[in-house]
Amino acid sequence: MLSAGKGATVIASHIADQASHLVLTSSGRRYRLTVPTGASDTDPLTYMLPADTFWELRRAAMSAFHEHIHFGRLRPRPVSLDPGPSERWRLVQWLRLLDALPEGVSARELAVDLIANDARHYSAAEWDSSSERKRIARWHRHALAVRDGGYRRLLNGN
Fold first, then answer.
1. Does this model's pTM top 0.85?
2. Exposure string (b/e) for 67-91, b if CB count within 10 Å is 16 or more?
């Protein structure tokens, strides 16, 4: 790994036609940078941000990065980057569901483990019409979609 100064370490890099793409880590945080080809070590650091729907968030992240690298100050993570308690709970349930799939766990067993312990006592007819069965099926579809690239849409706010 290469040193990037002030305690930052380059953990990944890719050189494309017009720029080097870097991932830096420092104090448990990751920063993604694009450095134009031909920039010298003596050129002042210049920031460019896309004017998209995440401009304000990108600006805040850029400002935090600048303060961290140049002044050694580490701001708290913006709350907007973290899911709320119910969203976090649901995402954890989806991960648990995905972890159980290779083991061949049944939908009912998933419902018992993730939603309602009482589902183990449902008759076949009760299980067939239960909200737990429908929720597990819905979670299964959503978890697979997120795993298979939907997380990018989630991160982009779509």
1. no
2. ebbeeeeeeeeeeeeeeeeeeeeeb
Compute the C-alpha angle 121/124/128, nearest 5°: 110
Q: Please enumerate in sequence order all residues whose Cβ is within 8 A of that of 82, keeping only pairs 6 or more positions apart, or say none.
A: 88
Give me the helices (H) in the chain, please: 55-71, 85-100, 107-114, 124-128, 131-145, 151-155
pLDDT tens digits, 79-99 = 666 677 888 899 999 999 999
| Domain positions in the chain | 2-80, 83-155
156, pLDDT greater than 80: no
Note the pLDDT tens digit of each residue in 32-86: 887 777 767 777 777 778 888 888 888 888 888 888 777 777 666 666 666 778 8
**CA-wise closest residue to 61 among 77, 82, 45:** 77
Give me the sheet containing 29-36, strands edge to edge: 2-3, 9-15, 19-26, 29-36
Q: How far is CA 143 from the centre of its chain?
A: 14
pLDDT at 5 > cutoff 70: no
